[in-house]
Structure formats: C-alpha cells, structure tokens
Write a structure and sequence with these properties.
- This protein has a domain of about 30 residues.
- The longest helix is centred in the middle third of the chain and has 32 residues.
- The protein contains 2 helices and no strands.
- The protein is mainly α.
- The protein is elongated, with a radius of gyration of 20 Å.
Length: about 80
Amino acid sequence: MNQLVILEVGNLEGVVVMIVAMIAVASFVISLVVAGIFKLIYESKAGRKLTKGQFWRTVLVCLLICGLISGMICGGGI
C-alpha cells in the first residue's frame, strides 16, 4: 500500500496575494455601498446634489477607514 503524500505548497506568496486582493475588493464594495447610502441621504434633504468628485472622495474616505480597520484586525491590534 502506498503512503499518502502531503504535497508541499512551497512559497505561500500566491495565497497572501489572493487574501490581500480579496480584502481590497471587499473594502471597495463596502465603500461603494456606504457612499451610495450617503448619497441617497445627502440628496434627500433640500434638493442638494452630490457631485462625482464628492462621491469618489466619500469612497476614498471609506476605503481609508476600511484599511485602518483591516490593519487593526490583521495586525493584531484587536
């Protein structure tokens, strides 16, 4: 009977890149949802309009906050 062989993975760089990419994509999607909700709330009051620049700045701020949160979690701060 042959022995079961555990395949060596070698360098785990691909896994790390995939995890970082998944975190980045999830943060971007969450930021788009938060910015969309912010846009709906902002435009519902007194007929104001949110410009494209303001929308993308809101997305950027949300991305920065998501980055801080993921850094705290992955870095062991929490």
